[in-house]
Description:
The complex is a heterodimer.
Chain A: H1 8-24, H2 28-44, H3 49-57, H4 60-73, E1 79-83, E2 86-90, H5 91-113, H6 119-128, H7 133-162, H8 172-203, H9 222-245
Antiparallel strand pairs in A: 1-2
Helix pairs in contact in A: 1-5, 1-9, 2-5, 4-5, 6-7, 7-8
Chain B: E1 4-12, E2 18-27, E3 32-36, H1 43-50, E4 58-63, E5 66-67, H2 73-79, E6 80-83, H3 96-106, H4 111-124, H5 140-152, E7 158-162, H6 170-185, E8 189-193, H7 197-201, E9 206-211, E10 214-219
Parallel strand pairs in B: 3-8, 3-9, 6-7, 7-8
Antiparallel strand pairs in B: 1-2, 1-4, 4-5, 9-10
Amino acid sequence: MTHFELDPRTKLVFVLVISSLAVIYRSLYWLIGLFACSTVLFFVFGVRFSNLLNRLKSFIPIIILIIFVQSIFRQEGNAVLAVGRFNLLTDVGVKEGASAALRLMILILSAGILVSTNPQHLIRGLVDWRVPYELIFMVQMGIRFLPLLREEVNDTFAAIQLRGVELVNVPLVKKMKIYSHVFLPSIANALIRTNQLTLAMELKGFGVGEKRSFYHEVSLKSVDKILTFVSIFLGLTAVILYYKWN
Amino acid sequence: MSLLEVKDLSFAYKNGVQIIERINFTLNKGDCLAIKGPNGSGKTTLAKLLTRILRPTGGHILLEGKDISELTLADIGKKIGYVMQNPERQVFSHTVEEDIAFSLRHRGFKSEEVEKKIDKMLDFFELNRYRKTSPFILSRGEQQRLAIASVLVLEPKILLLDEPTTGLDPLRKKRLELMLRELYYNGTTLIVISHDHKFLSKLFNKELCIENGLMREDML
């Protein structure tokens, strides 16, 4: 539930502007500023704090890995941690790592803004923007099936371990082989489900008419138009200022 | 010492929704426990707690006197054979025979012994003609028989089946009943979760009814 009932397309423009800036910015300080802005927007759109924490928590291992990899492969700058003549961490490397991690967090947060959007309304709005309905519908179905896929993978992992296979103290090569067993049923089930879904959709007349009607109607209000214009304008200004000052 | 002891078992999701509340029961060798309850009452959650797939938010489960929180899933799998509600999620090898052999190979059984056990299971579950077939093209009933065969090959002391009669025709249901009866006479402890009261009433000496996560235990 958002504080302002904005059109989903307005939110989409916000997300596009923020994520584009996150990709364009290379400076750590600019990224910190952008991260602060996206956190504020996250709350303005009514996404709960617990949701923000959960979202970021699941990405912590990836964020740490990014910081570590980025830091270790940048050898220029002053050494922060060194083994003999080899610099394990340098100040430039740490900065690069922190920038990459911030970039990822901004992308996660900006995508989270769309969580407060009704998917049906988003589809309706995008169709008005001439994005093919079939394409949006397929993406939406894919996203909807992700939790189910995760549950299936977890069940298969549990089934493998319950058959007496330890996953903790297993050598990496053997572990990879075991993991291949997990993906086989998941892919097979996904294909079977896709086939069933296609049949069900065709039976319900998907794509029969040349033009389809919608139960929900969405229209851009004045506030949406203004905010869309303002966000694009601010986004472009932020890009110009960034290149001017860096 | 009881084979399985459940003490004040509770489970709630992170959002605070209570699924299971203070469930208690004890199972000894050779017991047959039927777990009944309406949809969404927490039966499958209980099965996942018994196999440590889910961690309880309260209470303990003792398997042969040991708290299962100290055991790995692999340790539990040696004693409890769990057949899930969706058997297609627990068959994962390229062929039917490989799926039955999976746990034996990982335990270092010799090839002759593995072959012997596969033959026995394929015969018992009438899956011989599918020996080299991919498990993913089997029907639901066949996949379920394969899932049971694959967990039984380890000769667990407890067999836990979640909704085993779903999608089975009367003949297959009868065969499942006969198979469970045979396992029961061989000393396997059975736990079966089902809506099918008629099926359950034929074999079981204990029943546990769950409604909204709360239990009602009756001795039949």
